[in-house]
Amino acid sequence: MDEIIIIGSGMAGTTCARILAGAGAAVRVLDKGRGIGGRMATRSVATAAGGLTFDHGAQYLRPRDPSFAQILAQAGARAWPDGPDHGRQVGMPGMSGVLRAQADGLTVTQQTEVAAVAWRDGVWHLSTGTGDIQASRIILTIPAPQVTALLGDTHPFAAHLARVVMEPCLTLMAAFPPDSPRPFTNRLDPSHPLAWIAQDSTKPGRPQTAVTWVAQASAAFSREQLEASPDDIAARMLPLLAGVLDVDPALALYARAHRWRYAQASTPLGQPFLRSRDRTLYVGGDWCLGPRAEDAWHSGRAIARDVLDDADVD
Question: In 3D, which of 146, 244, 254 has the Cα closest to residue 210?
Fold first, then answer.
């Protein structure tokens, strides 16, 4: 039996695990994805132009807390020069690099989806595709709706979780030939269906074999198109991107879409985490405090400190 199981290998989960493991706790991280990072995501693809990467989740980090800035520096993050808006940091060689550095040395099991959790006989039982896992304490660092799905609508946390509002985001990853237009490094226009557009290849350490772009749709567009297939989403978003860039969409070397169903909290919980009275169950994530990765870091750190405070009392 593992002492502590953390579900989710994003910023909150790996932060919490790093602190707990550093204090000597037996901790294991489970995640249903193929790679560490959650929405701190980087996709690598092979194209006729060569290997390309896209930061298709969080675009950058702008640290406010000096301790968080130190974490980024230790993870090898570098500045992304982008005109008058200074202070943006990006992971190397992609945004997921920050989380991979933070998870180094931790016990992380990927491609393991937890289908159900239940407290029986003084132990948490986690049902997965590979069998039952037991733990004395579990920490859920997944989006609030997924927490509700695991714990159920009648759980004492349900009323708190119901107040959290999370917005979807549809993301387009596109590449064009090296001589194609590059009108800006990034563009924010909440009134446009593509609310955020970034020239990903301007970030340090990214491949230069093509001009790569990441476009993230507005919440309204994302809600409207959320259930469309990825191919249909890409087909709708590529002409919009090409129109902004003034380039022929037929010249695209690569175009794929990704659906983030729970991208960020428009109405956060308002506190760093929730916990059961006996401190055997914690839930947290960026959605507790806000939409930024640093909010997830604060949540994960707060959970770890509370768990360790409990251990000190014992």
Answer: 254
